[in-house]
Amino acid sequence: MSAAAATARSLDQLASDCVELAARAAQRVGGQVHLMEVCGTHTHAIARCGLRERLGSDVRLVSGPGCPVCVTTAGQIDLALQLAEREDVILATFGDMIRVPGTRSSLAEARAQGGKVKVVYSPMECLDLARDNPEAYIVMAAVGFETTAPTIACLVREAGRLGIDNLLVFCARRAMFGCMASSAPVM
Amino acid sequence: MCVAVPGRVESVEGQTAVVDVGGATVRARLDLVPEVTVGEYVLVHAGFAIETVDEASALEIRALLDEAERLFQVEVEEGET
User: Fold this and answer.
1) How far apart are CA A72 and CA B76, in angstroms?
2) Which residues span the domain enclosing A112?
3) What are chain B's domains?
4) Which of A100, A185, B57, B73 has minimal CB crowding within 10 Å?
């Protein structure tokens, strides 16, 4: 059996196991079970296995919070990939973004194929990148919820203060208006 | 990038602090908590101090992170056998 066929078979087996577990859970609670997909990768995996269709009406899948990385859409990853492939761009990204798949590839794959993808721990590292590479545009892949927005704002402010003009932000941010409104009602 | 870790501010220079995070020294920007002083505890996330916390909270978070790491190690070791 080929590796791909083996993977497909084991995924199919996993999906069957999930369906069986869900049926047992539904039987135990005596009604519809609500399961939350905590992480966006769960949502991806469920879609890929066709699990939603197989689970039937006893189980309702609810998309959960997700983290800034896993809620970044494949379309946004694709746009980041297009940027990374440009000759005149160095794409700066948080490390945990690079394995997230777009529709055709990931930033890790783009980097392996010569794309200029630079992993940063802090967005502020882009300032040194911009100064050290005056011939390139540094593009920070800005993902995340409201919590990381201020750090990107600090980067932009600092770049302005230092007169750095080859730094750009690819804004792929997420907003949680409801949460913000209830946690900071004065806003 | 989702985990903020607690640490003690060891020194401050301009807008940047040196923070002791569980024995490791990291640099953190203070733009979001500019009033921080040496000896205080902060949560560090993606190169920024994002919040000041009291010592008891910092130590409690540290203990939880250490416990999570130990459990993860056990899982890795069991996975290898």
Assistant:
1) 28
2) 74-176
3) 5-80 (2.30.30.140)
4) A185
Does some domain include residue A183?
no
- Kindly indicate the confidence band of residue A1, based on its pLDDT and cuts at 50, 70 and 90: low
> Is residue A44 helix, strand or coil?
helix
Give the residue on A whose Cα is nearest the Cα of B50.
A147
C-alpha distance from B26 to closest chain A C-alpha (Å): 11
Nearest CB to A69: which of B1, B48, B50?
B1
A160 and A98 inside one domain: yes
Domain count across chain A? 2
Pick from B29, B46, B48: CB nearest A94: B46
Determine, for residues A125 and B47 on separate chains, whether the beta-carbon distance falls below 8 Å: yes
Interface test with A, best of B31, B32, B44 (most A CBs within 10 A): B31
∠ CA A25-A28-A34, nearest 5°, is 45
Mind listing the pLDDT tens digit for each residue in B29-81?
999 999 999 999 999 998 999 999 999 999 999 999 999 888 888 877 776 65
Q: CA A38 from chain center: how many Å? A: 13
Q: Give pLDDT tens digits for B9-31.
A: 999 999 999 999 989 999 999 99
